[in-house]
Write a structure and sequence with these properties.
The chain is an alpha+beta fold. The protein has seven helices and 17 strands. Helix content is 25%, strand content 24%. The strands form five sheets. The chain has a five-stranded mixed β-sheet, sandwiched between helices. A five-stranded mixed β-sheet has the order 14-13-17-15-16, with helices on both faces. A three-stranded antiparallel β-sheet has the order 2-1-5, covered by helices on one side.
Length: 364
Amino acid sequence: MHRISSTLLIAGFLCLNLQVRAQDQRLRSKTQVLSPADYWEELSPIDHPSASPIPQPYSPQKPLHPHTLPEKIPAWQTRYTLGPGDTLDFSVFLRPELSRENVRIAPDGTVSFLQAVAVQANGLTPDELRDRIEEALSAYQNNLRVIITPTDVASKEFAIIGRVRRPGSYVLDRPTSILEAISLAQGIETNTVRGSAFELADFEHSFVARNGRKLDVDLARLYYRGDLTQNAYLEPDDYIFVASKLKNEIYVLGAVSHPGRLKMPARLTVAQAIAQAGGFTRHAYRIKVLIIRGSIHEPQTQIVNIKDILSGRLRDIPLRNKDIVFIDERPFELAEHALDSAIFAFLQTVTAESIVSNLVPLTD
């Protein structure tokens, strides 16, 4: 009798699971999500004798890495350190009357407990701070065993800016992945075209920056293909930039008088873009410039002989939306020699512009 009841229970669970899956499939079929190709013309190589050939774009058929999850514990959490804004509870072994709760570390990184006044806590672990507190108290009372318990973490933050519903700074009080960070920011902004929903984010030009450098993760693979090997955990002071799909713009960076973003008109050439950016600086390498096209994670590059274009020996090259034109100060032969500098300049420029235009208070 018990065996029959178990069999019926399992059969009922399987039927319920099939019904839920069928309902989910019907809901998915009703929602049409347009891809970036529905709104933007696909980039094609520039056919010009002065340009190096552009490699084929990244193939979406490439198999995913066999490992699908990032490492579980971020490196910074293996040694947790305190900072301004963190809140601590202090207690003393066998001396409950000396306890203090909700003691906040001051903006200058110091904290006080009993006669231990303005002890520097910034960058210390709770155990290291305890040792300093006990040392300071030893001049007044011997053999005090202090216990420090962090109760609120506010010193570790990350920022997410761009096409999310709630851009700003967020407290990093637990292991947080890129997708979790986007969720904390209430997800990606959306709009409707012809009755169909589409997202405003351009993940081909979005990035995560750490210590001023692009983190080696491909947000397009993560978001469009579900490749969780790209779902890295964040560290303090990381920032996520979610680019806009709707902006018509290019970047002219490097050795020009006014490097930065330019609006992309119906037609714009390399020479015109350099002129709009104020022209070359006196340190610019004026023979070749680098054009970066497509995803910054799998960029297509080509070298253009700008000297021959400006002298009239070669036809000027038309640019496309989201192109990056980079003028180096040093001579280079291969695109790879200037690519890192170009991507670094792009990150610095985008970050500076976004921080200025997205200045918002700390999000709860």
